[in-house]
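Dear colleagues,

As part of the handover before I leave the project, I'm documenting each prediction I ran so the next person doesn't have to rerun anything. This entry is a single chain, and its sequence is reproduced below.
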Amino acid sequence: MSKTQTVQKNVKREVHVIDATGKVLGRVAGEAVKYLMGKNKVSYSMHQDVGDSVTIEHVDKIRVTGVKLEAKEYLHYSQYPGGLKRGQLSDELDKNPTRVLRRAIARMLPRNKQRDPRMHRLTIIGEAKNKRLW
């Protein structure tokens, strides 16, 4: 019977650079999530954070397939009457494409206490100093 091996405390983190030129939004986000979670490593375990750092370049040249530019909506509700704000994907990509990619990556990660440290290891080139998770 083999025993389960756990990862050591000293995790060797690498930096992966992803060029988003001409790539689809969801594919870039999925690739980044794979590296952030550490699923590309042999020593991957669900309960430990063994992921690498990810740097994404040329986010303004990312593309979206299908009718998502007009059909996909981002909703935000402030809990006040009449406080529902809607935004189309095309408008969000024009204003801030890094926020769209950051939101896609954050929503692909599991919603647990490891999501914030993983998101801190994500760097998007050309992003403003004030990073917003959502």
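The radius of gyration is 17 Å. The CA atoms of residues 51 and 99 lie 22 Å apart.

All the best with the project,
I.
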